[in-house]
Design brief:
alpha+beta, D-amino Acid Aminotransferase, Chain A, domain 1, D-amino Acid Aminotransferase, Chain A, domain 2, 2 domains, 7 helices, 30% strand
Amino acid sequence: MDQAAYISLNGIKIKEDKPVFYTANRAFRYGDALFETIRCMHQKPAYFQDHYQRLINGMSLLKMDIKSLPPANILSEQISSLIQKNKLFGDVRVRLTVFREDGGLYTPSSNKVNCLIETSHLSSSPYQLNSKGLLVDIFDDEQKAMSRISLYKTANSLLFILAGIYKTEQKKDDVLICNAKHELIEGLASNLFWIKDGTVFTPLRSSGCVDGVMRKQVIRILRSNKIPILEVGGTNFETLLAADEIFLSNAIQGIQWVVGLKDKRYFCNMSKKISRLLHEDITNYMMDSLEN
């Protein structure tokens, strides 16, 4: 029998097979939680300051007590320490969940938070472009709200669960999500980009898409390399049919190119270039991180 790994709850390492929550847990009862999914390399979290800032912004919006969250440097150290404890030496996926303390009904008794860190091994190379393009479809049975909360990854994930079930039923690799205006804004767990005549497009955050950490890196890299990038309102099926390329981005996989949307097929020429630039960027980032 494999030895149980450890999790970290408020900085304390606990075997993952030990119970840590009561039924009054607010994340369980009300989805009163935020989370970050982070790729770690050499036992250090990549682009951590951006993950931390998004978490702080989300906590502020949800009226959570920011002072009850450890500072960024302490939280980063807790992540590295847990990876070491679990003897994970390659790339690692970390889920960092922040949830309000127990108590209250809809109105909480306290706004202080607990912090849970979980780790799992990643077999993929860091930000390597997929050799086989994704086949995607459109999920429009439900629409994502266009609100400030939409920017963050919360424990209220029913729309994405239904989209994931639809993806499985349709035997696709991913699905695109619609907002309240029935505009296409993102993938199941990723931001959406498309390319037309050498220009890269992505939906504005005001369209309801998640404020992705990898989205931020891709936009920064494109601008620094003078590759045209336009943030626009959510798109539609006809615009994507006319696109030359489509790719999705998230903090775990980097960018993943799409080969097919329904019956349309796409190239990945520019996506390959952007993937190479991302790989160079994360290599430099991690070298600086290790030196510091």
